[in-house]
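Here is one chain, start to finish.
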Amino acid sequence: MNFKRLLMLLAFASLGACATLPSSGPSGSQILETAREASTGTAGLNIEVVEVDTLAALPVAAAPAEWTLADLGAPPPSDTIGFGDVLSINVFEAGVSLFGSSSSSGSSSASGVVSPGFDLAVRMNTLPLARVDDQGEILVPYVGRLRVVGRTVMEVQEQMRRSLRNFSQDPQVLVNREQVIGNTVIVGGEVAEPGRLVLQTNRESLADIIALSGGYRGEARNLVLRVERGGDDAFLRLGQVMEGAYNDLTVYPGDRLTVLTDPLMYSVLGASGRVQQMPFSRDAMNLVEAISAVGGPSENSGDPAAIFVFRYEGPDRTRPVVYHFNMTQAPTFFLAQQFALNDGDILYFGNAAANQPSKMIQLISQLFSPVVTAISVTNTLTD
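Its structure:
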């Protein structure tokens, strides 16, 4: 009998130690109360609490990110000459050649070409390749230094023709870009073929550039496109880019595009089957999909009437807002399907205060089960 009394004393001592039962987090009423207190107290958070029970309570769906780069207007023509470009120059002359023949000039070559129906020989002189220097200029024999950066090939040809007109009989000039540096963009990151890409039309969209770089690596919903232009930059979701949300925007020469890994995530806390960060299953998720992905509130400790979404809103994402969903009401299920989840949202399942008695019963059962077994064994031995 002494052994029985000892077991009973140990059981009651264990119950006394568990007078305060642990919970998986604050209940729904505690969340709402503390959020309102933070708005009126010294915390200065000014938290807005929104009861999602009507269509009017749903936030406006987030539009694609605005283009935040400096507006440079329409891009220049595709044959605009830029810094570092290498130009080939051919001069066609009728009669006596200003540049001489190949036998008299080591820096140029001349060939006589007789046009059909004419007695006059036309000579083509190929000048040395000219690279546009840091001042945007090239050096042309008999002409001197010419500023060509920012001008089209046709404009440079006419500029040289006028300069040579006083030295040669009806000169004609043909300029080609042998190496293109200025009219390019740099593409890097998670693309198949990173490097320098020449713009062929200067009307390529962001999605065009990704495609011309061999496409992206990975899943578009987990990637972001960083566009650097001058001293500005913008971060755009690659999924939206590839879907055509920015097709009206053209890439500008000199842009730097980098595809970075940055998956959309939301955090799950409180009385749920799991507490962790969860990735978006696709580019756009609603609240019902997010709740389903984590298994919903715990049947032992969760309260379906106390489901919350915490997020920052506003242009600068500095305004804290708490959305409250009572999933015991049928209309809320339809509203939750129209509630778009944002990157960085916190999905919180409130603790059900009504579950405390059931926790106590489970705890008592767990504590007394070994005691009852031990007493039964003791009775068997004493009998």
